[in-house]
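YhfC family intramembrane metalloprotease: structure, please.
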Amino acid sequence: MVGTSQIILMVIAGLASVLLPFVFILVLRRRFKIQWIPILIGSAIFIFFAMVLEQISHFLVLQPKMDGTIPLLDKSPWLYVLYGVLAAGIFEETGRLIAFLLMKRKYNRIDSAISYGIGHGGIEAIIVLGLGMLNSVVFSIMINNGSSAVDNLPPALIESIAGTSAFTYILSIVERVFAITVHIGLSIIVFTSVMKKGKWWLFPAAIVLHALTNVTAAMMQAGLLDNMWLMYAGLMIMTLVIVWIAYKQVA
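Here you go.
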């Protein structure tokens, strides 16, 4: 059985994923001119490069089996981590680069980079956290109602939903706050590489920074790290590094 409090927190986390982009808009509009077109472009680029092209790459490179197992993960977890973090960095930052090259004439102010980052990070929050929580709520109701469809679900999935602590759902919201902040920072960095002469090196730097941001999460997924707090510490440290570098470009 899945507790009622757990289901309520799933719903709250899911709603938070939708509201977070608007919270960032409300906070940042005090200093920057938030623009809807770059926000929509950021959302579209994330969907195409991360959810389509990157997933095709995962299918071709990782070659997952019908049961969901990934040979590379079993044989060489460190190589799996290296591929995963670099793939995320290359696909998403390349999408960012192409977007800013196309936006260069009309949207050439730093406000556009920040707006883009909100769109990129915001749609990721909705897809990763929002849809994830929606699935968890549906599965939880099925489990509690004793639906026969539950028999077709992987036992690990049922155990994960039933065994997730309430605190984890709160942390998932905090994680998305950091993630959106990272995407805004990386957007500023790549934007600068496009708009300022002699700053081209910031684009490959953004790929590396993006990859490093995902390292502890990828290690957790690969079973190389089992301490959740170390995973979040890695995310927080990289968020501060990226924000500092982005601030240097704006200041």
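Notes: The chain has one domain: 4-58+71-250.
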